[in-house]
Amino acid sequence: MAEYTFYTNPMSRGQIARWALHEAEVDYEQVLVDWADRPAGLIEANPMGKVPTIVHHAEWGDRVVTEAAAICAYLAEMHPEAGLAPSDEEMADYYRWMFFAAGPLEQAIVARSMGWTVPPEREGMVGFGSMARTMNAIGSHFMEHDWVCGGRFTMADVYVGSAIDWGLNFGSIPPEPEFVAYAERCQARQAYKAAKAIDSKLIGESRK
Fold first, then answer.
1. What is the CATH number of domain 4-83?
2. Helix (H, G, I), strand (E, B), or coil: what is residue 37?
3. Spatial CA neighbour of 69 closest among 23, 22, 101, 109
C-alpha cells in the first residue's frame, strides 16, 4: 500500500495537493473523483465529499487531512527530510502568507469572480477588506522577496504559488511584474512540472 491515498479531480484544488505531494517526494495512490458518483472511501474520509483529501497511512493509524493549505502544511511537517518546513526565523512569514492566501486572498478572488461588491463603509466586516488592499499587501512582499520565506522555497510557496498561478491564468489576479516573476519561479520547479503534467494529461483524456 502507498503511504498516502489521494482523492482528487484534475480540474480542482487537487492540483495544489498533487504539487505538494511531489515536492515532499512521497508515495501516493490517486483516486480520481467523478463529481456525479463520489467514491464511498472519499465520503467516509471527508463527509463534505470535497477534494483534495488525503489519507496518510501512518504507522500509528490512518490520518485524514482535508483543505489544501492544511495538506501542504501537514506534508511539510511529516516529511522534514524534504526541507520544506520553515526554520524558526522563517515561521512568521511561512504561516502568515500561507493563511493569508487561504483567507483574504481567496475571499477577495471569490468575491470578484461572483460579482460581489463590498461597500467601502463595510470593508472592515470582511476578511479581505478590498481587492486592492489584498493585492497591495501580497504584492509588496514579492517586490522584495523571491519566495514566501525570503530566499528559500518552502511548502508555503506551493499554496501561495498555486493561488497566484491560478489567478494569473484566469485573470482574477492582475499581471503585475512581481506576480508574473513569482509564478515563473514556481513553474520552473521540477515537482511543479511533474504534477502539472499528470493533471494536464488527465484533463486532456477527460475531454476526448
1. 3.40.30.10
2. strand
3. 101
**What is the CATH code of the structural domain delimited by 91-191?**
1.20.1050.10
Find all residues with CB under 8 Å of 21, minimum gap 6, and list them.
4, 6, 28, 54, 75, 195
**98 touches 154 (CB < 8 A):** no
Q: Is the peptide bond before 39 cis (omega within 30 degrees of 0)?
A: no
User: What is the dihedral angle through the alpha carbons of 196, 202, 203, 204, rounded to the nearest 10 degrees?
Assistant: 110
Q: Give burial (CB, 10 Å; 0-12/13-18/19+) of 47.
A: exposed
List, for residues 86-123, the tens digit of each pLDDT value: 999 999 999 999 999 999 999 999 998 889 988 888 98
Q: What is the pLDDT of residue 112?
A: 87
- Rounded to whole angstroms, the Cα distance separating 148 from 138 reads 10
Q: Of all helices (H) and strands (E), which one includes residue 53?
A: strand 53-58
Hey, which residues does 65 pair with through a beta bridge?
54
Which residue ranges make up each domain of the chain?
4-83, 91-191
Q: Of 15, 35, 31, 13, whose CA–CA distance to 23 is shortest?
A: 15
In which region does residue 56 sit, left (phi positive, over 0), alpha (psi from -120 to 50) or beta (all else)? beta
Q: Are 2 and 28 in contact (CB under 8 A)?
A: yes
Question: pLDDT per residue over 165-187, tens digit each?
Answer: 999 999 999 999 999 999 999 99
pTM (two decimals): 0.95
